[in-house]
User: Fold these one by one.
Assistant:
Number 1:
Amino acid sequence: MAHARLSLAALLVCLVLGTVLADTRYTNKYDNVDIDRILSNARILNNYIKCLMDEGPCTAEGRELKRTLPDALQTECSKCSEKQKTTAEKVIKHLIDNRAKDWDRLLKKYDPTGEYKRKYEKAVRSA
């Protein structure tokens, strides 16, 4: 009986730790998406922007991005892998340089106070 309680306690500790550790990073299941292909294809990029703006359907990747974006902005991507940080910088730079109107629309939705804009634009420009 004591052994069963100990095993149950160990299982619960493992489950709690697994949940806590899982929450410290975003999923990496989309890290191998070809971001250059997306950025160079106006139709695909438009679809992602429409997804983020609630103006069109979302792919699985788009839904994940939409779900994590507010937290990533707020925490300065603290749960991002290095690959995700590099990709985010690339996308931001592309939008600023090539799709300024879309960048402004996204900022109005996800950063209405301008709090994150200053941080991220400065970081991208210095990269």
Number 2:
Amino acid sequence: MASNWSIYTTLLTMEPLDILPSHVFPAFIFGTLAYCAILVFNMTVLLTIALNRKLHKPMYLLLFNLPLNDMVGATAFFPQLVSSILSQSRSITYSACFAEAFLTHLYGAGSLLILTAMAYDRYVAICCPLKYNTLMSPNNLLKIIIIMWTLDFTLIGLLLALNYRKEICFTNIVDMYCNNPSLLRLICGDIQLNSYYGLFITIFFQGLSLLIVVFTYIKILITVVSKRQFDAKSKAIQTCGTHLIVFLCLEFNAFFALIAHRLPNVSPYIRRALGVSVMVFPPFLNPLIYGLKTKEIRHNILEFFQKKIF
């Protein structure tokens, strides 16, 4: 048991990686390269949007937040993982674990909020084109981004703040990385309020995003079907298809990971695999999907590299 200020320096033990000694170095190299690839892919999308005035439109300025958020998620997960692989130690201080859990949940909620805001932008662009410049004016866009990040920091900050205790009774993190459910298991005494609030923000973020995305895509589908112009249909399907692929990948990953944490009979190996997939696949795939599927971004990336090479 740890008490008072010593709680922040208490060493916690995370789930073992079970890597054979002969596989330690290859696993370290693979993890490091994966993290570097995520940073490079996301930075490429960020710089492409930032350096091209043609992309300074609401759709791309909202998209700008996604690689930023993905890099937060990857940074919460990979440095601790590759360090553990190399040192063969799964120890982490309580304060570092707390910070990792905060960044992890900030990334998960941020992904949902950003994709929800992007769905609203596509809805206005396709269903209310004459009102687009008014509804998505620079001032309104700034308000959307501020509200999005304020909600994320406030609700996730409160979630982790409720975990504050002067003492903990356990030191074993039952997961591959630190998160709210694993921190709750360390706490002595009643955690009912924490559980209720955790369930509330899960329903809030998942419910809000699903409700808005389903509503906007039904309206978009009706509008696209009613349009006779083939070019308008093709452009709408292209821009919405990319967003929908990213959103569905995140939702399926997050849904099964949440279910695995809530059901006690789920195999710990399945729970770990699903938890890790949420932290690895979206940050890796999102920039690739947007880079390859969005014509304007793909064109500007290719143009940039052609200038540098030739």
Number 3:
Amino acid sequence: MVTQPVVLVTCVYQALLFGCQYLLLASFSRVFHDVYKQPVGIASLHYIAMIIGYTLSGQVGGRIVDKLYRAMQRRNGGVGKPEFKLPLLIVTGILMPAGLLLYGWTVQYRVHWIVPDIGIFLIASGARMTLFVCPLYMADAITMYTASATSSLVITRGAFAFAFPLFAPDMYMALGQGWGNSLLALATFVIGVPSPFLLFFFGERLRLRSSYSVRAMKLMT
């Protein structure tokens, strides 16, 4: 991960979005129980918004990736590139900060619970798309070493998922839901918006700087 630029960029991008998702997962039931005064059983039902986001984005997103890949492959003379699987990440880079802002400020001002749920839906959709696009890209970019590259993705996002919930209570206590989630939205925007463009336009150059990627491509051809 630390010696292969294309793996590093992909790992950091995915791990940040995954960490933010887990930070929120740790706070959902407490937010709806303490802020909206809902019973624990009712407060836990808001995870349904995340289930819907995961399911729809997984079903629709996969089809969009395939359609876009085939279209760009035709325009490129029938030759496919790993970067052709990345355009959907541009959407995730927008969905995550938008969902975080919507969720944070509507909870801060105690807007009807359906509006924070819409924010949760957007967050889940962005996270899910990232979770299946990044491994797809790694599979094409590193080919023969896909298992190792995917392991880097899993380890990095696992570390972020472990670390982020640890500081969630202190962050929300100090900043509140509005500014606390705005801070997360800023982080996901700064990393999440430029990273897909960076990988799409410069991913091939990064792959050529990766000894594993170059060697894998030679072995495959």
